[in-house]
From TrEMBL:
Protein name: EAL domain-containing protein
Residue ranges of every copy of the EAL domain listed in the record: 9-260
Superkingdom assignment: Bacteria
Pfam families in UniProt: EAL
One annotated GO molecular function: cyclic-guanylate-specific phosphodiesterase activity
Cross-referenced PANTHER family: CYCLIC DI-GMP PHOSPHODIESTERASE PDED-RELATED (PTHR33121:SF79), CYCLIC DI-GMP PHOSPHODIESTERASE PDEF (PTHR33121)
Taxon lineage: Bacteria, Pseudomonadati, Pseudomonadota, Gammaproteobacteria, Alteromonadales
Length: 274
């Protein structure tokens, strides 16, 4: 595995640019649901790259390699633009599009200008766009970065803290950042249904978010016990394999059609990353 990992890294480094230019990358979309209404609320765009050499490449690895240099700019802007273009096709069915944004990208480019441009190009309303950032933003909390986030909010875009609980984001930052949503990392949910103390911890996180007027999305719902736990805990929204796996746009179009007549429905993404 170590060797494969190393050579996959080298492969990504030398092929990402070409892969972007030749249309080898794509986005899959994972639905998010309201727990009270059991309706579709949003979708999250997730990067996918299938290479002849390595099969499906782990998106976290791709992002990490891109973050080492300017490739992260190319990649981030491709993702943003593609996600907005795709979303234009489902915006009558889906209220919100979430796109993951690397903090490294935010540091390198005037993101507000770029986002405004792609919004205009796609005809998607800024009120439909949600940008997910991670807790590394806290380590880089330069005034310029905080300012950029505030400007995005002023445009009507919402901001989510992704994988909440795994990083450095203390209470003071949670207050200081212009967030609308926290996504609680799936590791907490996993533990909450098997251990009473972890269940209490999950409730504390939910309460904390509620006190700060933040919308809460539970990540990684994989079984009925977890879903039940979240419903009883009055968590707002949920995302996970139990409800729906990430899927290509073509499948999402079918999925949103079906959602009108049925409730939670799992659709399989059969991908095994390197
Ligand atoms: P994330 O933003 O936290 O995305 C959620 C990840 O959890 C996705 O993995 C998704 O497929 C997976 N997931 C969803 N439901 C479940 C579940 O019930 N159980 C389990 N075990 N996993 C679930 P994926 O697609 O492999 O992406 C991994 C990470 O890579 C993302 O985590 C995000 O940090 C990063 N990433 C993916 N696409 C992009 C992108 O376009 N830009 C940036 N900057 N990062 C991206
Ligand atoms: Mg995310
Ligand atoms: Mg996450
Ligand atoms: Mg993650």
């Amino acid at each position: 595995m170590g060797d494969t990992h190393l050579s996959a890294k080298a492969f990504i480094k030398s092929n990402l640019k070409l892969a972007l230019q030749t249309g080898q990358l794509s986005l899959h979309y994972q639905p998010q649901f309201s727990l009270a209404q059991e309706t579709l609320t949003g979708i999250e765009a997730l990067l996918r790259w299938r290479s002849k050499e390595f099969g499906w490449l782990n998106p976290e690895l791709v992002i990490a390699v891109a973050e080492q240099d300017e490739l992260i700019v190319l990649l981030s802007e491709w993702v943003l633009r593609q996600a907005l273009t795709d979303f234009a096709q489902v915006q009558n069915e889906v209220k919100r599009l979430s796109v993951n944004l690397s903090v490294r990208y935010l540091q390198r480019r005037p993101v507000v200008t770029v986002v405004e441009k792609y919004l205009a190009e796609s005809g998607v309303s800024p009120h439909c766009l949600d940008l997910e950032i991670t807790e590394t933003v806290v380590l880089e909390s330069a005034p310029a970065l905080l300012n950029a986030l505030k400007q995005l909010r002023q445009l009507g875009i919402s901001l989510s803290m992704d994988d909440f609980g795994t990083g450095y984001c203390g209470l003071s930052y949670l207050k200081k950042l212009p967030l609308s949503t926290v996504k609680i990392d799936r590791s907490f949910l996993h533990d909450a249904v098997s251990n009473a103390r972890d269940a209490l911890l999950y409730h504390d996180i939910l309460q904390l978010a509620r006190n700060l007027d933040l919308r809460i999305i539970a990540e990684g719902v994989e079984n009925q016990a977890q879903l039940r736990f979240l419903q009883l805990s009055h968590c707002h929204e949920a995302q996970g394999y139990l409800l729906a796996k990430p899927m290509p746009l073509s499948q999402l179009l079918q999925f949103t059609g079906q959602q009108k007549t049925s409730e939670f429905l799992a659709v399989a993404e059969d991908i095994h990353f390197l």
